[in-house]
Amino acid sequence: MQRIKADEVVTIRMELNGRAVEGRAEPRLLLSDFLRHELAATGTHVGCEHGVCGACTVRIDGQMARACLTLAVQADGCRVDTVEGLAPEPGRLSVLQDAMRRHFALQCGYCTPGILMSLDTLLCDEPDADEARIRDVLGGHLCRCTGYQPIVDAALDAAAILRKESRDV
Ligand code: FES
Ligand code: FES
Asked: Rounded to two decimals, what is the model's pTM?
């Protein structure tokens, strides 16, 4: 493994939402700060900065990850997905995003990007996820508005639509 000095600024390259990007970072820079300040991907929010609230959740090489507990250098060469990549095209929401909208599953919305990333990953990995499993995943997210029930309803609705879509293909 390449050794990097603490104050050395290195170039980090990654595939962000399917696009090759690069930026500069000291080894101590968090992935959340790298995304927001170096790559201007401000959809990823930062709440607690110590792995508790889930607001900063992104996907790294297909796995859910806390961007506030990950150094930017650790994501070098990885595929990183953030909330900006969920919509299939400009002006069109993903099935999950649309279900969240229809169920009014957000209030201030600060926690929503992280919740969307976790639920999107869950529904991709486990299309048959039931309410208990959805609540289990939501347990990793603190929504201070406490509007969890509409989020669960939206996730169940989206899961049913996605299952139907995959059967109809
Ligand atoms: S900001 Fe990362 S878990 Fe709260
Ligand atoms: S919608 Fe307000 S903190 Fe989650």
From this structure: 0.94
User: What is the CATH T-level fold of the domain 10-83, as seen in this structure?
Assistant: Ubiquitin-like (UB roll) (3.10.20)
CB atoms within 10 A of CB 126: 13
CA distance 27 to 13: 14
Q: Which fold has domain 95-168?
A: DNA polymerase; domain 1 (1.10.150)
pLDDT in tens, 20-57: 999 999 999 999 999 999 999 999 999 999 999 999 99
Cβ of 145 below 6 Å from ligand 1: no
**Taking the CA of residue 99 as centre, how many other CA atoms within 13 Å lie in the half-sphere pointing to its CB?**
22
Atom index in ligand 2 nearest the CA of residue 106 equals 1
Q: Please name the residue that has the structure tokens 């968090």.
A: 30
Q: Delimit the CATH 3.10.20.30 region(s) of the chain.
A: 10-83
Beta partners for 25?
10
CA of 18 to the centre of ligand 2 (A): 28
* Ligand 2 centroid from CA 70, angstroms: 23
